[in-house]
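Dear support,

I submitted the protein below through the web form. The confirmation email said the job was done, but the results page showed an empty box. After a refresh the structure appeared. I'm attaching both so you can tell me whether what I see now is the final result or a partial one.
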Amino acid sequence: MEMTAIWGTYGWLMIPVGLFLGLLGYRLYKISLFLIGLFFGLALGSWIGENLSNPQLGLILGVVLGAALGVTTHFLIRFSLFLAGMAGGVVVASLVFPYVNVLPGTIEALLWSLGAAVVGGLLTLALYKFLILFTTSLIGTYLIYEGTVGFFPAQTQSWSWVLYVVLLAVFVVVQLGARKGHPDPVEQEKQRRKR
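What the results page shows now:
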């Protein structure tokens, strides 16, 4: 399931959200986690609507799920870290599928995506400092990929992936720099709650 199929003519909206996540994901992690929850819910609702052959229901369900997940991630930091890790796991799985001959939309793809989501969520809880910046960088790169890949000529598909790998590396380096000057987000949240 491609994100551009879900968003249709509004696929360009993924580009600024991807830039925000890639450049400011660690520094503004609460907003980033809200956006990830929102997009995760929209994609899930759209996928359900697509499988039920009812795009209107999918859109309504996607908006409701997206808003609920977005608000939940804003207030429940541990859950939001787990959700961000899950989203990152699904992105990694969808990028690996073409290389291991798993067809998107099959039960096998769904099971691998669910497994990658759970592993990504658990890893994020264990290694949240580094994985916040890596997950937001990865999801930001993926959103930019989905928003821009259709604009490349067909003959460039064999090498255009290099641009996205470079973009991911730039996002990680920028966020590593932001991490040095920014306190630990989970510790900061704990101190705010104590006050």
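Response: this is the final, complete result; the empty box was a page-load delay. The two ends are 45 Å apart (CA to CA).
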